[in-house]
Write a sequence for this structure.
């Protein structure tokens, strides 16, 4: 409709991004599958011979997935890419390239009070994670965020929200993917890392955003000190599981254990029993391991955005206690679904007596 | 942040979409490259042996690319997919799968005044074009459009704009792509179809949106009767050019001839001469062919969104007058760039005298 020519200096910005992305691709991915990056109608990728292509897309929308008042731009950029990488990890695929579509209100493209523009800081966060996992940024789209008419009958306009859409392309050997649908009755259920940390850190962030304003991604230890602001995609674990044929099914915990396990059960046509006392709680949820409070359990079961992997494996298969430096915990078992029974049952012990209760999906539904 | 559980009945909606997409994939693409569609962490594609992968992403943002008051939902859905398909066409690639990320304010997901919901009509337009070109819808993301704070210091919130991000994955034999960078000095410049029609129809639409409210995509004739509302991606022409090795370079005219030809020149390190009198004007621009008014020329050169292909070919190569039923017109020639000279020169005849003038890019810059 309108022609906002060079309002953001898009051409210059894209050229600098193109140079940076090309540099990254050359330096870190000398044998990468990216044959043609930013600058033509499409990017061209060359997957390794015998590989299939994996594609995932995820929105990051202001006020839905992040808030400018809470999250640093670096965290928004990191989280945007981490979500897509986590989807690849859940299937055991290796990333080939990322595509970023970014719509920003004009004020976020310009420097403010002598600081770098929000956009540059967003990209710094995005590209730091891309560099770590050697994922070339191969294209995307940019736009001024839509001017939003407050009242459609009048003419008043406001600048729109910031939003990003991330596309990840990955590859894995033909017919080797970790699917949600492959679990068998009797399989053990495992999770990587720790649960509930992202939800716990989000609550702290909401209560006191100032405390987190200078928060930077640290070299990841375990547990990750910033599970919400800088989640770590479990690419190495996914790749290990795929390569060693250990898992029967997998999914990433983006929307909460209860919701993502429910999806895995649905796709595998099975039910599950989860042992509450085996859940690996993040120290931000509860520093001591016993007794688990109801609040801690709520965060670990329904919190979401932990981006850990949830996978199943045959009881006859040995799963190490840690894979690629990430702790692995068995939290339950898959079983046949009996008619009228809840799909997921949570088991714990109260006063020495075993208690079973249904666990309905309580995480994020899109 | 918030957990808008089932506000839009997302789960039911996604299930119906998944069923429809799977049906489409089965019915129309029995040998398609889509191995796993909606329902896991990633979609899985199997490109034909020896093929490379092509990826393009495009935003469709309310008030930037469409207006709810002007465009029917069917047109918005059609245009959203057509933009991505046109990028594949420009490189000669065949589509493998589409991914659609859609963020809508709640009111567009519900039926209104006994009519189908905006979202359903959007998808009808999208899927009709997908069906025509046998492109399975293999995934994407859905979200409630961000609630937008009018005043960040206060708490007042408004529903956000409608927006879509489309990703197209295509394939073509290894090292066969039509690139922007392959033109040689002396190559002829060609365009498909007609120019300026989209801009002319947009002007009519803006002047009288009611007239277009019942406008439907017709079986495409040539010229396309609705070049703005229902543009036709030139996939068959792109595929023909690739298969027959006739073109040296190609780009699609999404942002206007002057801007897209400038990009092709830049990537090929060349300049171009365009003959104004050879431009194939769309009948909506000017019913008679002579004399060309300045307004008509403006629409044809800078109008944008025609989604025709612009390509170059050696003067020794025969280019037919029509390819796959689409007329092809020679509009100029590529040449070396002389220092200090304009990159694109427009030539016409005034009172029997040849006139040359520089043609700066005047279309849409992102």
């Amino acid at each position: 409709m309108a022609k906002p020519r060079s309002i953001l200096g898009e051409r210059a910005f894209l050229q600098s991004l193109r140079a940076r992305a090309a540099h990254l691709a050359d330096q870190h991915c000398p044998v990468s599958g990216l044959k043609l990056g930013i600058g033509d109608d499409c990017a061209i990728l060359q997957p390794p011979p015998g590989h299939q292509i994996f594609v995932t897309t995820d929105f990051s929308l202001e006020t839905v997935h992040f808030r400018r008042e809470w999250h640093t731009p670096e965290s928004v950029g990191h989280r945007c890419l981490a979500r897509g990488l986590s989807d690849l990890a859940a299937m055991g695929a290796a990333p080939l390239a990322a595509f970023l579509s970014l719509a920003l209100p004009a004020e976020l493209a310009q420097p403010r009070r002598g600081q770098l523009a929000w956009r540059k800081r967003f990209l710094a966060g995005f590209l730091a994670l891309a560099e770590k996992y050697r994922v070339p940024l191969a294209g995307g789209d940019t736009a001024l965020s839509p001017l939003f008419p407050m009242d459609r009958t009048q003419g008043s306009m406001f600048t729109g929200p910031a939003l990003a859409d991330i596309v990840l392309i990955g590859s894995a050997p033909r017919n080797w993917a970790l699917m949600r649908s492959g679990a068998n009755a009797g399989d053990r259920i495992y999770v990587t890392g720790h649960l509930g940390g992202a939800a716990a850190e989000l609550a702290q962030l909401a209560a006191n955003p100032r405390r987190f304003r200078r928060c930077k991604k640290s070299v990841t230890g375990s547990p990750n000190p910033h599970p919400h602001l800088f989640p770590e995609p479990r690419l190495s674990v996914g790749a290990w599981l795929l390569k060693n044929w250990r898992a029967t099914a997998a999914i990433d915990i983006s929307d909460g254990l209860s919701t993502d396990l429910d999806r895995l059960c649905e796709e595998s046509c099975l039910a599950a029993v989860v042992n509450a006392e085996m859940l690996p709680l993040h120290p931000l949820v509860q520093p001591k391991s016993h007794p688990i409070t109801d609040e801690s359990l709520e965060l670990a079961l329904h919190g979401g955005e932990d981006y850990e992997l949830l996978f199943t494996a045959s009881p006859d298969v040995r799963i190490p206690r840690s894979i690629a430096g990430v702790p692995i915990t068995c939290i339950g078992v898959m079983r046949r679904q009996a008619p009228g029974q809840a799909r997921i049952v949570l088991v714990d012990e109260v006063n020495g007596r075993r208690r079973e209760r249904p666990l309905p999906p309580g995480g994020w539904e899109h």
Notes: The mean pLDDT of chain A is 86.
